[in-house]
Structure formats: C-alpha cells, structure tokens
Specification:
The complex is a heterodimer of chains A (501) and B (255). By secondary structure, chain A is α+β, with helices and mostly antiparallel strands. Chain A is built from 15 helices and 14 strands. In chain A, β13 and β14 form a beta hairpin. In chain A, α2 packs antiparallel against α7. Chain B has a single domain, classed as P-loop containing nucleotide triphosphate hydrolases (Rossmann fold, 3-Layer(aba) Sandwich). Helix content of chain B is 44%, strand content 19%. An eight-stranded mixed β-sheet of chain B has the order 3-4-2-5-1-6-7-8, sandwiched between helices. In chain B, 52% of the residues are buried. Classes of the chains: A alpha+beta (501), B alpha/beta (255).
C-alpha cells in the first residue's frame, strides 16, 4: 500500500491526474453500472410482462371463440328440446328416409335420387340410424320415426349457427335411441360398420351417467370420423321441460383456426413460439409436434408432462392447473427466475381448461436489455474517454507552470539565467510566474554583481607603507634583541636546554 | 613536546578569540591537553566563549603577573572532552581597575614567558594557545617570537590584507617555524578556491582555512563554543581542518 501511495505522492501531475479521474470517471462508471443494471432488469421485466399480456390476450381470443360455440350449442339444445316435445310438422315426409346398402337409415338414397350435391347442395341435414335391414322405418320403431320427423325443423337452426360460426364443422343431435341428425350434409358412407354414435365421445362426454350436473361439456381433441381433420366438440345435454334426458346436442368445430392463433404467435423476430395444450397436457398445437397420423376417432396422445426438464414439467403442471404465470427452464434441468435458457409464459383458457403457452429463448427476452446495455456502454466509454482527456489536459495545465518554475529554479541552481516563465492558464499561476520572473531577474542581477565583485577582489598591498611599518618595528632595539633571542626564548618557555642560532 | 601557537590579527573584530576557543576545543576533542592564555590584557573576551562566570574566577593572569598566585592557580578547566582531552584557560581580568593598572605599570615580559613555561610543566600541556592583542606591540611580538606556529586571522578586506603582510614579514624575521592564515568571515557567495589562491599567492603562505560569514555564527554571538554544538557546520569543518594541519606539522623540534 505504501508503494502506490509513494508513487502517487511522488508527482503532482500523477496526483492531480488520479484525483481528476477519481472525481470524474469513478462516478460515471458507478452511475452507468447502476443505470445499466436497473434498466436491464426493468426492460427484461417489461418484455416478460408484454409476453404475458400477449399470452393472456391470445388465450382470451380462443376462449371467446369457444364460448360462442358453447352458447350457440346451448341454444340449439334448447330448440331441440322444444322440437322433441312437440308434434312434427305435418308436411314432413317420412318416405324420404330410406335404408342404404349397408342398412343404415338416412337420406343418402333420397339425396342421390334427387341429383345429389348438384341439385340439393349441402345445406341440409342427414340422419343416421341403424335399424334392421328391410324394415320400414315407422314399423321398425315408432319413436325413432317420430324423432326424425320432429327434428327436421332444426335444419334452419343449424344453418343459422353455421352461418355465423366459420369454425363450425358439424352440428348434430343424437338421441338415446341412437338416431343422429347431423348438419350440414354428410353421407352416411363415412361411418364404419356397426358404428353407434352413442358410444362416441361427443355423446358419452355429456350423457347423464358421465355428466350428472348435465353441464355443457367439451371433448378432448380428436380426429373427425367424417374426414374433417382435428376437431373438438361441444356437447350439451338436451333436457325436456320436466328434466327428461332427450339427447345430446353436439357442435364440432375444427380447431385449425384455434391452433393458428397459438402457432401464429410470432414476435421478436420469430425467436419464440406459441403452443396450446388441453387440460391433460396433451398437445393441441405445438410447432415441434407434427400432425399425428391417427386413425379416425383416436385422440392424439402427446403429453407435455412426459417431456422436458423438471422445471419445464413444473411449468406445464401450472398450465394444467389453469394458472397464469411465467418461468424459466432449460432442457438440461436448470430453471428458475431467469436461470434457464428459455422463458415460458402461459395463460388459461377457462372454457375448455386448455392453456396457451409462449416459449421464448432467454437471449431473445433479454435482447432489448442487452441492446440498451451496449448503447449505455458505448456512451459510458465515450464519457470516460472525454473525462480522462479532460483530466489529462487539466492536470497538464496545472502541472506545466510548476514544471516551468522548477526548470527555472534548476537553472538558477546551476548558475544559469532562468528562462522567463509564461503561464497562459490560471490567474494565480500567472501571478506566481510574474513573481518568479522578477525574483529570478533579481537573483541573476545580484549574482552578476557578486561575480563582478569577486573578479574585483584584489589584494593590493602598499609596499612602501608596509616597509615603513615593518621598519618601525624591526629597527627598535627591543625587536633586535627579540630577533636575536627568539629561539632561545622558545626553548626556555618549553623548559628545554638553551639553543642558539 | 608542547606546541605553542599564537593566534593573532592585525586589527580587532576578526573573530580571533572565537577561532582560538573553537580551535582549543577541537584539539581537546582529539585527545590533547590544551592551555589557553588570554594575553589580550587590554580587551579580554575569550572567557565569555567558554562560559566562564566572573564569580568562578579566583585568580587571573593579572594576579600572576603581580605575584599574587602561581600560574596553575589562575588556570581554569573550561572544557573536558569525552576522549580525555581538556582545555584550561588562563583569563585576563575584566575589572577596569585591573586593566588600567596593568597598562599603567606594564609587566616584565620574562614573567609572561615564565607563566607559559610553568603552565606547560604544571599541566603537562600538548598545546599552548596564546590569544594575543591585535596589532604588533611588544607583548604581542614576545608571544609571536616564542611560538612554534603563528595563526593569523584576517578578513577579506584591504586593511586586513595590508596589516597581515606586515605581520607575516615580522614573523619570518623572528623565524617562527610555521605561519598559517585563516581567512574568516568570507561571504558565502565568494568563490572560496579563488580567494584561497589569491591570498596564498599574495603572502606566499599557506591558508589553513577559509571560514564562511555565517548567520548561524552571528546568532551564536560568541556565547558558546560553536563547534561543540554544530560540529557539521562549514565553520566547524574549517576549524577541524586547521586543527588537522597543526597536528600534522612535524617541524616541531627542540629549539
């Protein structure tokens, strides 16, 4: 510690330079450091919040669409209950319902006989019911014939719903007898042999045995039997005025548009992606999961709870619980607050219990903060450079007069005439320089005079006067005696034997 | 063998007594027994430098000359050096009546010589320093005549230069074996080597030391032996060099 202090104290220039740097550079660096740290935190938090808002708004968008479907299905179920509790329209023609080649009762035969799609289009429903082959419908089952005729009027209801709901694929009523009326037109040829709609999830999900509260229910996503791809179905129990169970109103919607809402999330230069999972963590939409080549009617089986790191699975668990939030994770098992390599924000879709997530690489999340930090560093470096230059210039401004004065003093010490010191900076130094110049000039003048005096120091002895003075002494008898006896006297004084010249 | 040294100056105020006192102390520091005679009976002063209080003086040189005491009774030990050297001072009386009486009655020169001889014997002296009266009166000539070495103190001014030339010639006539010059009160801005060269050439005589004119010495005001309190001062080093030259002298032969 003493060595650096001595080094600093050894030169006024170094001390000033260090002092100026200390009072300028240190605060700049300190303030910049604090600013950068706080700003990075704030910017990162802002990005995280923005992503959460985005996730929430996308989840809300999906939830609204599903809510609309649910409401329209409830209305349809209510109207179906009305129809099933009143006599059919007298104009209804039971004769149009015939068995096809596989013995399935429906409108296929009539439809083809009338000219098919070219003549009738698709704006009508078909009926599916597996009665006994060759048996007249009314004779076979009065109740079914009654239901077929009662529900013919629902076509206008179905058409109204489909016209306002672009995602609606099918809307259909299934009664406990196994009769199904489905809109718009679809040939019964699509269904496999011995197919019973009452065994299928769109029915089972909402039937009283599985749904004691008789609430509207969503199925899990599945592949459509009628070939329309991935679907999800809203199923609503149809109840009579006295609470009798009359059937299930189902409303299939393609989830392609919902998937596109999640998969279409493209922000921050595509650094992240959105995904959608259902209440069992099964993937509904995820860029890393290709369409499963499933046979008709099988549900996709790709659970996100079975993959990824612990941190990732914890976050997925939160999504399944219907929470909203965010967290960091990485595939290596790390995670936690900003510790992982990716950020996951998520928001629930209450209508179906699904959850929408947005995953974003950490570097993308902090990119705005990094960019801000880099700009701040450039500004800081610039400020520090300016401060250092300023410190050097100022130190030199102060040090230069001192050096000039020192040089002048050295010149005087070396017996030379000191150069005139001219100081352009600082009034006090200027006064000091003037005083020094005056002093140096006087010192030089005095030295000059002294030297001149030295040169003049002559020893001038007036020989004549000297001789007179000597004569006045040596010519006396006293001196002559003394001169003659000097050695003897010396010996006597020292107590030595007398000596003679 | 005792070495007798007279310190002399042609005029007063050269710092003769001061140089003598300091020289005595330096010689004592070198282990010698030194006796100092204040023969400047008309204007005594060296006792002040040695800090000798009037009350502690029982007998003076005057008393000896008048036959009131033996010379060793008038000698006062004024300095004892750590190495065993010692300085004895035989002061002159400062009583104005005594001074008037001695000037009026004169004294026998042989008595003074007996005083020197007796003190040398009584105190086994290595050096006897005689602080003389300025100028060249008979008493001074007597002191010079019996000296092994004459130390002439002068200032660098024309009057001293003139007077010193007389003293040097007279000393040579008296065959004083060794004559040393001390140029005292030399202004520090002078080129000492140049001054020394000029003085030696003018008198054909060695300069034992050039002592600087010093504010420190002036402040000391001859109140104490300066070399003892400021041994590193240029003045002290000059005195030391004089002592060295006096000590190195080998011309001391039985007279």
């Amino acid at each position: 510690m003493r060595q650096p202090m001595q080094w600093v104290r050894g030169s006024i220039y170094r001390a000033l330079l260090l002092a100026f740097i200390a009072v300028s550079v240190v605060p700049i660096v300190l303030i910049s450091y604090l600013f950068i740290r706080q700003s990075m935190d704030a910017l990162t938090r802002q990005t995280e919040e923005n992503l959460q808002l985005l996730a929430a708004s996308k989840a809300e968008e999906i939830n609204l669409k599903l809510g609309d479907v649910m409401h329209s299905t409830v209305v349809a179920a209510h109207l179906a209950a009305e129809a099933l509790q009143h006599p059919p329209d007298p104009a209804s023609q039971l004769a149009r319902y015939q068995q096809d080649a596989r013995g399935i009762w429906g409108l296929d035969v009539y439809y083809h006989a009338q000219g098919g799609a070219a003549a009738l289009g698709e704006d009508l429903s078909n009926v599916y019911w597996t009665g006994a082959a060759g048996t007249p419908l009314l004779a076979a089952d009065d109740a079914v014939a009654q239901q077929i005729l009662q529900t013919e009027s629902l076509d206008t209801v179905f058409a109204g719903i489909k016209s306002v709901s672009p995602d609606t694929q099918w809307i259909y009523l299934t009664t406990p007898t196994g009769m199904m009326r489905l809109y718009p037109w679809a040939s019964n040829d699509h269904y496999p042999d011995q197919w019973d709609p009452r065994q299928i999830v769109f029915y089972t999900v909402a039937e009283p045995g599985n749904n004691p509260a008789l609430q509207p229910r969503w199925t899990a996503p599945y592949v459509d039997y009628a070939g329309a791809g991935w679907m999800v179905t809203m199923s609503v129990p149809v109840l009579g005025d006295n609470g009798d169970f009359l059937g299930i109103m189902s409303h299939d919607i393609t989830i392609e548009s919902l998937k596109q809402i999640a998969l279409g999330i493209n922000i921050l230069d595509g650094g992240g992606y959105g995904f959608l999972i259902d209440s069992a963590a099964q993937v509904i939409a995820h860029p890393a999961y290709q369409e499963v080549d499933a046979t008709k009617g099988t549900e996709e089986d790709a659970s996100l709870l079975a993959v990824g790191s612990d941190a990732y699975r914890r976050l997925i668990q939160n999504m399944v619980h219907g929470d909203s939030g965010l967290g960091y994770y990485d595939e290596a098992g790390g995670g936690g607050r900003r510790g992982g390599s990716s950020l996951l924000v998520y928001a629930p879709i209450p209508e179906t219990g699904w959850s929408l997530g947005i995953s974003m690489p950490r570097e993308t999340v902090i990119a705005p903060a990094i960019a801000m930090r880099n700009r701040a560093i450039v500004i800081t470096v610039t400020l520090v450079t300016v401060a250092v230059i300023f410190a050097v210039v100022l130190s030199r401004l102060i040090h230069k007069p001192v050096r000039q004065l020192l040089q002048g003093v050295q010149q005087i010490a070396e017996d030379r005439r000191a150069d005139e010191v001219h100081v352009g900076s600082f009034e006090e130094f200027d006064q000091l320089a003037q005083a020094f110049n005056e002093m140096a000039s006087k010192v030089w003048e005095r030295e000059r005079r002294l030297k001149a005096r030295m040169a003049e120091m002559r020893i001038e002895i007036d020989s004549q006067r000297k001789q007179q003075q000597i004569d006045s002494i040596v010519e006396t008898d006293f001196f002559k005696r003394l001169e003659a006896n000097a050695r003897q006297l010396r010996s006597q004084v020292k107590g030595l034997p007398a000596a003679t010249d | 063998m005792t070495k007798i040294i007279s310190t002399h100056s042609f005029r007063g105020g050269t710092g003769k007594s001061n140089v003598t006192a300091n020289l005595a102390a330096v010689l004592a520091n070198r282990g010698y027994r030194v006796g100092v005679f204040d023969t400047d009976i008309q204007s005594p002063g060296i006792h002040v430098i040695f800090g000798l209080a009037d009350a502690s003086v029982r007998y003076t040189l005057n008393d000896y000359l008048w036959g009131n005491c033996a010379i060793e009774e008038a000698a006062v030990e004024v300095y004892k050096a750590p190495k065993g050297g010692v300085v004895y001072l035989v002061p002159s009386s400062i009583d104005p009546n005594d001074i008037a009486r001695i000037l009026r009655e004169k004294y026998d020169a042989s008595d003074m010589h007996a005083a020197f001889r007796d003190l040398i014997t009584a105190l086994s002296l290595d050096y006897l320093l005689i602080d003389t009266h300025p100028g060249l009166n008979e008493e001074t000539l007597l002191s010079i005549a019996i000296s092994d070495s004459l130390v002439i103190i002068l200032r660098p001014d024309q009057q001293d230069f003139q007077g010193t030339s007389v003293t040097v010639d007279v000393a040579r006539r008296l065959r004083v074996p060794e004559v040393n010059l001390i140029v005292n009160k030399v202004p520090p801005e002078y080129d000492f080597a140049d001054v020394q060269r000029k003085v030696e050439r003018a008198y054909n005589c060695q300069v034992a030391a050039l002592l600087p004119l010093s504010i420190d010495l002036a402040q000391n005001a001859s109140a104490t032996v300066f070399t003892l309190i400021r041994p590193d001062h240029p003045f002290s080093r000059g005195i030391e060099s004089v002592a060295q030259q006096l000590e190195a002298d080998v011309a001391l032969m039985p007279a």
